[in-house]
Amino acid sequence: VPRPQASAQRDGPPDPASQAIFVHGRRVLCVGGIQHAVTRYRARIEKLGGQFEHHDGGLEDSAQALEGRLSRADIVICQAACINHEACHRVKRYCERTGTPCVYLDRPSLSRLDRALAQPRGDRDAIR
In whole angstroms, how far apart are CA 40 and each of 3, 33, 37, 47, 98? Predict the structure, then answer.
């Protein structure tokens, strides 16, 4: 006799952690990165209907500016290899505290960004 448990799980609302990141109409903050990657990220996020903002991760932009931009962000892209250690920890602490979705990229790459945005939130520790 087949058991109906699988259909019962499909009837409820989807688990937000299992959904890809929806960018349209949201403010996306990119922290760190090299200039050509940031330009490509901006074009991709705007093509998806998002509003793009950038902070260099502490190279020239101040830590205080990072806090302000984080508070306005709906989604954060953290290029961990392209920012200073303190900025990376600030981003991580902020996103954990507020529940803001954060995409961690270990290297600047448009294809990595695309994969990260498409992955369920629970699988998004670092995109390699």
Answer: 49, 11, 5, 10, 27
On whether the CB atoms of residues 52 and 30 are closer than 8 A, the answer is: yes
The strand pair at 75-79 and 102-105 is best described as parallel
Q: What is the pLDDT of residue 58?
A: 75
Which tokens belong to 125? 């520790």
Nearest residue to 95 via CA among 114, 109, 112, 75: 75
Beta bridge partners of 28: 52, 75
Tokens read off for 67:
């806090």
Separation CA 56–CA 115 (nearest Å) = 22
What are the helix (H) ranges across the chain? 5-11, 35-47, 63-72, 85-98, 110-118
Q: Considering the chain, what is the average pLDDT of its residues?
A: 78
